Structure formats: structure tokens, C-alpha cells
Amino acid sequence: MKNISVIGSGTMGNGIAHVYAQSGFAVNLVDISADALARALKTIEKNLDRMVAKERIDEATKNSTLANITTHTDLKTGVANADLVIEAATENVDIKLKIFRDLDAFTKPECILASNTSSIPITKIGAATNRPDKVIGMHFMNPVPVMKLVEVINGYATAAEVTALVMETSKKLGKVPVEVNDYPGFVANRILMPMINEAIISLFEGVAGVEEIDTVMKLGMAHPMGPLQLADFIGLDVCLSIMNVLYEGFGNPKYAPCPLLVNMVTAGYLGVKSGEGFYSWNHGTKELIVSKQFKK
Ligand SMILES: NC(=O)c1ccc[n+]([C@@H]2O[C@H](COP(=O)([O-])OP(=O)(O)OC[C@H]3O[C@@H](n4cnc5c(N)ncnc54)[C@H](O)[C@@H]3O)[C@@H](O)[C@H]2O)c1
């Protein structure tokens, strides 16, 4: 595999383009928004500059990484020579299914089509194409250049040789790929999101306050940040939507989202991105200040 196309140049797409380009692949980065593409290139350059300053890469690697990336707003030209496409567009079923139908039409028949989705079934995405054996999940973690894991998700029809190729390309990025099967939440979110939901239930039931819950998990379990802080970083709307995927996907009440989470999302308290969640963020993300809703 030489030519990689990345669809969507937001938080995840620019990170995926960065790591492939830095590993010497030719990357075509595609987005419907020219502004998003310009922002992505700026972000990649800024992240490379930080790596140069820390002496993790040299100036020549920075320049070759940037030279390996070409941007496109037209999907057809952006994927024409792709051996592997990684879709990291907005998490919306209709958008993803349309992209995969188009990818099926525009790419070479042997091209592998991967999705970075956090919650949409890979089997469903594969079924929208005429090559479900070549459709697979590549779930990178945020921030992509830093996080080692790639959760590689086999759809019901994914061929074993496709999985093997995707495991191999992930290793070429210096990542650690882990193979899992396609059930709601895969492994990462199936375990992480119920933990976050349980932290919110503990707060809702008055078992403990925001700082107490996060401190127990930080100091007691050596987690780098508490589950409520992490929920604020992920976005409470994203947490709610993934809990609903688990709840509906398994039909098991143990995955029911906490009513407090539902209320906060309805009221627009989404965490860092809205400025207020379990903590207040309007002053930036360095200092932890419990939101006034949860002050004792
Ligand atoms: N943000 C995370 O922490 C995280 C972690 C793991 C996986 N994911 C998954 O990665 C994917 C992308 O998430 P994100 O946080 O980078 O989103 P984002 O909102 O930052 O970026 C999405 C980009 O997709 C573009 N886009 C929308 N429709 C498009 C189309 N038809 N063709 C091309 N581009 C299109 C948008 O213009 C935008 O630039 C989602 O599936 C999400 O579930 C996100």
C-alpha cells in the first residue's frame, strides 16, 4: 500500500493524514470544506513544529511530511489512485453511507475502505457497498499522532486478508493495532462509556461530588484524568449518543444513559466545546473548576 486517502479533515482526519504522511505514504486528504482543509494543514504544521522543538523529528521530516499531503474538495479525484481509504467524516449514518457508496463507485476494485467511526456498525457500512469483504473499521484514538492504539474492527463480511493488510499498515505507523469484532461500541467504547455513565449516575445519586469521583478514579485506579473530566473532553453529546448506540444495540437496560446526562445535553451543557459541563472551561482547559451546578 502506497496511496492513502483520508476523508474528512477534522480532529481525527488531520491526525490520520499526519501519521501516514510522516511514515512516508502519499496522502490525499479530502473534505467538502476548503476551510476545514486549510485548518487541517495548519494544525498538522503546528503539531510537526512542536515535534521538531522537542527534537522528536528533524526539520527535513517535517518538510517531507507536509510534502506528502495533497488536499482535495472533490471526492472522485481525491480517491482515484487510493490503495486504502480511511473515512473520518462527521459521525452521521446517512453521511457515511453516502460516502461509502461513492467510494465504492470511485475507487479501484481492490482498494480497501476503512471507517474511523466510533459507533456506526462496520457491517452496516459494508452492506452499503458491493465489496463488504474489503470494508473494515480503523478506530484511531484522539490525538492520533500521540495515541498508540488502532482498534481494527472486522465487519461480518470482512475478509481475513484485508484484516491482515490493515494490521500491517497500522504497524508501519508505529501504532499497536488490536483486532476486534463488530458489536455495538466495539471494545473501547463498550467499556469506557458505561464507566463514564456510571460516574454520572454516582454523581446523580449523590454518592459523591464531581471532584471526589474524579479523584477516586485518578488516584485509586491511576487513570490520567477522572471520568467526568474525560466526558467533558469527549463531549457529553458524543457520550450520550454512544450510550444510546449500546442501549439500542444490545437492548439491555444496563446501558441506559443516566437522566442527568440526558438533561445536560438537552440544556446544551456539552463540556469543553460549550464551555460548561461537569467543570467550567471558559477560562481554558488548564485549570479544573467544578461547574457551579455541582458546587457544594
Ligand atoms: N473526536 C474524537 O475523539 C474521535 C475519536 C475516535 C473516532 N472518532 C470518529 O472520527 C470521525 C470524525 O470525527 P471528528 O471528531 O474528526 O469530526 P470533526 O467534526 O472534527 O470533522 C469531521 C469533518 O468531516 C467533514 N465532512 C463532513 N461530511 C463530509 C463528506 N461528505 N465528505 C468529506 N468530508 C466531510 C467535515 O467538513 C469536517 O471537517 C467520526 O466518525 C467520529 O466518530 C472521533
TrEMBL record:
<feature type="binding site">
    <location>
        <position position="96"/>
    </location>
    <ligand>
        <name>NAD(+)</name>
    </ligand>
</feature>
<feature type="binding site">
    <location>
        <position position="273"/>
    </location>
    <ligand>
        <name>NAD(+)</name>
    </ligand>
</feature>
<dbReference type="InterPro" id="IPR006180">
    <property type="entry name" value="3-OHacyl-CoA_DH_CS"/>
</dbReference>
<feature type="binding site">
    <location>
        <position position="91"/>
    </location>
    <ligand>
        <name>NAD(+)</name>
    </ligand>
</feature>
<feature type="binding site">
    <location>
        <begin position="8"/>
        <end position="13"/>
    </location>
    <ligand>
        <name>NAD(+)</name>
    </ligand>
</feature>
<feature type="domain" description="3-hydroxyacyl-CoA dehydrogenase C-terminal">
    <location>
        <begin position="185"/>
        <end position="281"/>
    </location>
</feature>
<dbReference type="Pfam" id="PF02737">
    <property type="entry name" value="3HCDH_N"/>
</dbReference>
<dbReference type="InterPro" id="IPR008927">
    <property type="entry name" value="6-PGluconate_DH-like_C_sf"/>
</dbReference>
<comment type="similarity">
    <text>Belongs to the 3-hydroxyacyl-CoA dehydrogenase family.</text>
</comment>
<dbReference type="InterPro" id="IPR006108">
    <property type="entry name" value="3HC_DH_C"/>
</dbReference>
<feature type="binding site">
    <location>
        <position position="118"/>
    </location>
    <ligand>
        <name>NAD(+)</name>
    </ligand>
</feature>
<dbReference type="InterPro" id="IPR013328">
    <property type="entry name" value="6PGD_dom2"/>
</dbReference>
<feature type="binding site">
    <location>
        <position position="142"/>
    </location>
    <ligand>
        <name>NAD(+)</name>
    </ligand>
</feature>
<dbReference type="Pfam" id="PF00725">
    <property type="entry name" value="3HCDH"/>
</dbReference>
<dbReference type="GO" id="GO:0006631">
    <property type="term" value="P:fatty acid metabolic process"/>
</dbReference>
<dbReference type="InterPro" id="IPR006176">
    <property type="entry name" value="3-OHacyl-CoA_DH_NAD-bd"/>
</dbReference>
<dbReference type="GO" id="GO:0070403">
    <property type="term" value="F:NAD+ binding"/>
</dbReference>
<dbReference type="InterPro" id="IPR022694">
    <property type="entry name" value="3-OHacyl-CoA_DH"/>
</dbReference>
<feature type="binding site">
    <location>
        <position position="31"/>
    </location>
    <ligand>
        <name>NAD(+)</name>
    </ligand>
</feature>
<dbReference type="InterPro" id="IPR036291">
    <property type="entry name" value="NAD(P)-bd_dom_sf"/>
</dbReference>
<feature type="domain" description="3-hydroxyacyl-CoA dehydrogenase NAD binding">
    <location>
        <begin position="4"/>
        <end position="182"/>
    </location>
</feature>
<protein>
    <submittedName>
        <fullName>3-hydroxybutyryl-CoA dehydrogenase</fullName>
        <ecNumber>1.1.1.157</ecNumber>
    </submittedName>
</protein>
<feature type="site" description="Important for catalytic activity">
    <location>
        <position position="139"/>
    </location>
</feature>
<dbReference type="GO" id="GO:0008691">
    <property type="term" value="F:3-hydroxybutyryl-CoA dehydrogenase activity"/>
</dbReference>
<keyword id="KW-0560">Oxidoreductase</keyword>
<keyword id="KW-0520">NAD</keyword>
